[in-house]
UniProtKB/TrEMBL annotation, chain A:
GO terms for biological process: peptide transport; transmembrane transport. GO terms for molecular function: ATP binding; ATP hydrolysis activity. Keywords: ATP-binding, Nucleotide-binding, Transport. It is a peripheral membrane protein. Gene3D superfamilies: P-loop containing nucleotide triphosphate hydrolases. It is found in: Cell inner membrane. One of its GO terms (cellular component) is plasma membrane. This is Dipeptide/oligopeptide/nickel ABC transporter ATP-binding protein. Belongs to the ABC transporter superfamily.
UniProtKB/TrEMBL annotation, chain B:
InterPro entries: AAA+_ATPase (IPR003593), ABC_Ni/Peptide_Import (IPR050388), ABC_transporter-like_ATP-bd (IPR003439), ABC_transporter-like_CS (IPR017871), Oligopep_ABC_C (IPR013563), P-loop_NTPase (IPR027417). Keywords: ATP-binding, Cell membrane, Membrane, Nucleotide-binding, Transport. It is found in: Cell inner membrane. It is a peripheral membrane protein. GO terms for biological process: peptide transport; transmembrane transport. Residues 7-257 form the ABC transporter domain. PROSITE patterns: ABC_TRANSPORTER_1, ABC_TRANSPORTER_2. It comes from Pseudooceanicola nanhaiensis. Gene3D superfamilies: P-loop containing nucleotide triphosphate hydrolases. The keyword Cell membrane applies. GO terms for molecular function: ATP binding; ATP hydrolysis activity. The keyword Phosphoprotein does not apply. This is ABC transporter ATP-binding protein. The lineage of its organism: Bacteria, Pseudomonadati, Pseudomonadota, Alphaproteobacteria, Rhodobacterales.
Length: 336, 333
C-alpha cells in the first residue's frame, strides 16, 4: 500500500535471562513474531497486560533494544538494519513519548533546551532556528512560549507530558511512538493530552503507534488495534471492527473486565472473569499461549499453536475456534 | 441511615507544618461510613484521599497534624484517645490495605507468619490456631495451594497475589472497616476484576464496611454504595453512588464524568465521532488556594461570588450534599 508509513515484519525480541536451573540459558520471549503496518496519518493501537511485550515493540522500533529477528521499515528505509550515520540520517523521522513524564526529562535542563535536544543531537538548523522551533512547539502543545525558561520540576505532571510531546514534535517527525503516554496522569489531564494528540494528528498528518493497557483509551485514539498476549498478537483489526465484533477469548476477557461509570453495582460478578495470571515469558507453552487461562481451551489448544487467520476487512484472529465460539458479552452477541 | 454510623469524620482539618507556616492539606472534611457499606473516595492526585485515610488511622506522616475536627468510631472521638487504644482499634476494628503491597509486607517473614502474627496479637489465638486461621484466610482470597504458600516469602508472589495476601491480612482479624487505598491501581484489569469480585463476596459474607480510595469512577460504580468526591483538600460532594454518578450536582464531579473515556462495544463502536470533554487548567497548588471556591478557576459556571466566597455544603437530595453555589437540587424523575 502506498500510504504505508511503518511496516513491522516478523519482529522477535528475545532477552537473555541468565542461567536456567537445569543448565543452559533462559530466554525471555518478550516479542515473538509480530507483523503490522501503520498508514500515514493514522494511529495503530497495541493493548495487552503487563509484560505482554508492548514496550519492547516500541523500543525495537526506536532501535533501543537489539532485534532478534525480523525487519522494520519506515517507508523505504529498513531502519532495523541501519547503524551509525545512516541511522542518524533518518532519526528525525520517528520519535517517542514515554509513560513517565517525570523520569524522561533531565531535571537540570530547562524546557527549551529539552525540546531542542533532538535538534541539537541531529544537528538540525542553527541556534536561533532551534530556539524558534522550541517555542513554536511549546505553543503547539498548549504551553506558554515563555515556559521554555522553566525547569521540569516547575511543571505539573500533565504539563510535563506536554513538554515530552513538544520534544517529540521538534524534529517534525512523521511517526511518534507513544508508550502509555497517559497512564501516569489523572483522567482530567488524560483527556487534555488525548485530545491534544488527536488535534496534532489532524493538523500535522502525524502517525502514531499508541500503546496502552486501557481499551477505552485505545478506542478513543486508534484507527487499528492489535491485542497482545505473551509476546504475540492474538487479534488485530480496524478499531470499529474489533470493538463491534471481537472474536478472541482474550480480547473478550479484557472487555469483560473493563469498568464503566454507568455500570450497575456488581456488574463484574455477573461477567465471566478470567482466572489466574499470564504464564512466564521464559517458557511459553507449546500450543496457544492463552490456553491455560482460556475458558474454551481444548486438548488441541494445548498442543497445537493457532495461527492468525483472516476473517475479512483486515480482521485477523489467532484462535482455533475463532468464529465458532459464542461471545460471553451480550453487546457483542447482538452485533453478530 | 439515621443513628450513629460506624465512622463519622466531622470537620476534619489536617495541616503540614513548614518553614513558611502551616499549610492545609485537608480542610473541613466531613463524611459518614455506615456499617456494612462501601464508601468510594474519588478525586485527582494530591486532593487528600490518602491523607484522610491516614488521619483516620492516626498514621499521618511526621510534620502533619490534625488541627481541627473529630473522627468518631461508633461515637468515640479517636483523635483524642491514647495510642494504646488506637493500636487496639487498628488491627481489630479498622485495617488498611495500602497502595503498594510490597512496602507493607515484611520481606523477611513468610506470608503465613505475618498473617498469624496479626491474629495472635489482636485476637489472642495460640500459635496452632493462628496458623489455621492464616490458611483459612489464604483460601478465602483464593490463593491456590494455601497450605504450601503459607511458607512462601512476599517476593515469591506476583503483584496480584500479594494484593490478595494483603486482603487476607486485613480480613484476618474480622475488622468492621477496611480502608483500601487504590488496592488495584498497579494491577492488570483482569486481575483487578478478580480482586473486586473477591472484595464484594467477602463483604457479603463478613458484613465489613469498606472505604475504597480510587481515582476511577468505574471502580466506584462497581463497588460503592456511597461516594465522596474530593477536590484540593475539600470534600466537595457526597451522597449515594447512584445519585452522584447519574445526577452529579457539583460541576467538578460532572467534569470528571465527562472526561472519563467509555468503552463502546457493538454498534456504538462503529460511530467514530466520540469527543472527550476536558476540564481545562489544573488543580491549584497546596498553600496557594484561590479565595472562593477552589474549583472556580476551572469551572465553566463560575461567577464573581464563586471567585470570592467559599460555597457552603448544601443538601441537594436525600443524603446528597454538594459544596457549590450553583449546585442544582436533584429533580426526581
Ligand atoms: N531488558 C530486558 N531484559 C530482560 N527481560 C526484559 C527486558 N525488557 C523487558 N523484559 C521482559 O520482557 C517482557 C515484556 O516486557 P515489556 O516491558 O515489553 O512489557 P509491556 O507489555 O510493556 O508491560 P507493561 O504493561 O508492564 O509496561 C517482560 O516479561 C519483561 O520482564
Ligand atoms: N510526606 C509528604 N510530605 C509533604 N507533602 C505531602 C506528603 N504526603 C502528601 N503530601 C501532600 O499532601 C496533599 C494530599 O496528599 P494525598 O497523599 O492525600 O493525596 P491523594 O489524594 O492520596 O493523591 P494520589 O491519588 O496521588 O494518591 C498533596 O498535595 C501531597 O502533595
Ligand atoms: S485457541 Fe483455544 S485456548 Fe487459545 S484462545 Fe482459542 S479457544 Fe482459547
Ligand atoms: Mg510497558
Ligand atoms: Mg493517595
Amino acid at each position: 500500500m502506498s500510504d504505508e508509513l511503518l511496516r513491522v515484519n516478523g519482529l522477535k525480541v528475545h532477552f537473555d535471562a541468565g542461567r536456567a536451573p537445569g543448565g543452559g540459558r533462559r530466554t525471555v520471549h518478550a516479542v515473538d513474531g509480530v507483523d503490522f503496518s501503520v498508514r500515514k496519518g493514522t494511529s495503530y493501537g497495541i493493548v495487552g497486560e503487563s509484560g505482554s511485550g508492548k514496550s519492547t515493540i516500541a523500543q525495537a522500533i526506536m532501535r533501543l533494544v537489539p532485534i532478534t529477528e525480523g525487519s522494520i521499515f519506515l517507508k523505504e528505509h529498513q531502519i532495523s538494519g541501519l547503524e551509525g550515520q545512516s541511522l542518524r540520517a533518518v532519526r528525525d523521522r520517528f520519535q517517542m513519548v514515554f509513560q513517565d513524564p517525570f523520569s524522561s526529562l533531565n531535571p537540570r535542563k530547562k524546557a527549551r533546551a529539552a525540546i531542542r535536544e533532538p535538534l541539537d543531537l541531529l544537528g538540525i538548523g542553527d541556534e536561533k532556528g532551534r530556539d524558534k522551533v522550541a517555542e513554536d512547539m511549546l505553543a503547539a502543545v498548549g504551553l506558554h512560549r515563555e515556559a521554555g525558561r522553566l525547569f521540569p520540576h516547575q511543571f505539573s505532571g500533565g504539563q510535563r507530558q506536554r513538554l515530552c510531546i513538544a520534544r517529540a514534535l521538534a524534529s517534525r517527525p512523521e511517526l511518534i511512538v507513544c508508550d502509555e503516554p497517559v497512564s501516569a496522569l489523572d483522567v482530567a489531564i488524560q483527556a487534555q493530552i488525548l485530545n491534544l494528540l488527536r488535534q496534532l494528528q489532524a493538523e500535522m498528518g502525524l502517525s502514531y503507534v499508541f500503546i496502552s493497557h486501557d481499551l477505552a483509551v485505545v478506542q478513543y485514539v486508534c484507527d487499528e488495534v492489535a491485542v497482545m498476549y505473551l509476546g504475540e498478537f492474538v487479534e488485530k483489526a480496524p478499531a470499529a471492527k474489533l470493538f463491534s465484533s471481537a472474536m478472541h477469548p482474550y480480547t473478550w476477557s479484557l472487555m469483560s473486565a473493563a469498568l464503566s461509570p454507568e455500570a450497575e453495582r456488581g456488574t463484574l460478578a455477573k461477567r465471566p472473569l478470567l482466572g489466574g495470571e499470564p504464564p512466564s515469558p521464559t517458557a511459553p507453552p507449546p500450543g496457544c499461549r492463552f490456553a491455560a487461562r482460556c475458558p474454551f481451551a481444548t486438548e488441541r489448544c494445548r498442543a497445537e499453536k493457532p495461527a492468525l487467520r483472516g476473517f475479512g476487512e483486515g480482521h485477523r484472529v489467532a484462535c482455533h475456534y475463532a468464529g465458532e465460539l459464542e461471545p460471553p458479552i451480550p453487546e457483542l452477541r447482538r452485533a453478530a | 441511615m439515621t443513628g450513629t454510623p460506624f465512622l463519622e469524620v466531622r470537620n476534619l482539618t489536617v495541616e503540614m507544618k513548614g518553614e513558611s507556616g502551616a499549610i492545609r492539606v485537608l480542610d473541613d472534611v466531613s463524611l459518614r461510613i455506615e456499617r456494612g457499606r462501601t464508601m468510594g473516595i474519588v478525586g485527582e492526585s494530591g486532593c487528600g484521599k490518602s491523607m484522610t485515610a491516614l488521619a483516620i488511622m492516626r498514621l499521618l506522616p511526621p510534620g502533619f497534624e490534625i488541627t481541627a475536627g473529630q473522627v468518631l468510631v461508633e461515637g468515640e472521638d479517636i483523635t483524642r484517645v491514647p495510642e494504646a487504644r488506637m493500636r487496639a482499634l487498628r488491627g481489630n476494628d479498622i485495617s488498611m490495605i495500602f497502595q503498594e503491597p510490597m512496602t507493607s509486607l515484611n520481606p523477611v517473614f513468610t506470608v503465613g507468619d505475618q498473617i498469624a502474627e496479626a491474629v495472635k496479637q489482636h485476637q489472642g489465638l495460640d500459635a496452632g490456631a493462628a496458623e489455621q486461621r492464616a490458611i483459612e484466610m489464604l483460601k478465602a482470597v483464593q490463593i491456590p495451594g494455601a497450605e504450601a504458600r503459607l511458607h512462601a516469602y512476599p517476593h515469591e508472589f506476583s503483584g496480584g497475589m500479594r494484593q490478595r495476601v494483603m486482603i487476607a491480612m486485613a480480613l484476618a482479624c474480622q475488622p468492621r472497616l477496611i480502608i483500601a487505598d487504590e488496592p488495584t491501581t498497579a494491577l492488570d484489569v483482569t486481575v483487578q476484576a478478580q480482586i473486586f469480585a473477591l472484595m464484594r463476596e467477602l463483604q457479603q459474607e463478613t458484613g465489613t464496611a469498606i472505604m475504597l480510595i480510587t481515582h476511577d469512577l468505574g471502580a466506584v460504580a462497581e463497588l460503592a454504595d456511597d461516594v465522596a468526591v474530593f477536590y484540593a483538600g475539600k470534600r466537595i460532594e457526597s451522597g449515594p453512588a447512584g445519585a452522584i454518578l447519574r445526577h452529579a450536582a457539583h460541576p467538578y464531579t460532572s467534569g470528571l464524568m465527562s472526561c472519563t473515556p467509555r468503552l463502546r462495544l457493538s454498534a456504538a463502536a462503529r460511530d467514530g465521532a466520540a469527543v472527550l470533554r476536558e476540564i481545562p487548567g489544573m488543580v491549584p497548588q497546596l498553600g496557594r488556594m484561590p479565595q472562593g471556591c477552589r474549583f472556580a478557576p476551572r469551572c465553566p459556571l463560575a461567577d464573581d461570588r464563586c471567585r470570592s466566597v467559599m460555597p457552603p455544603d448544601v443538601e441537594v437530595g436525600p443524603a446528597h450534599a454538594a459544596a457549590c453555589w450553583k449546585a442544582e437540587t436533584e429533580v426526581m424523575a
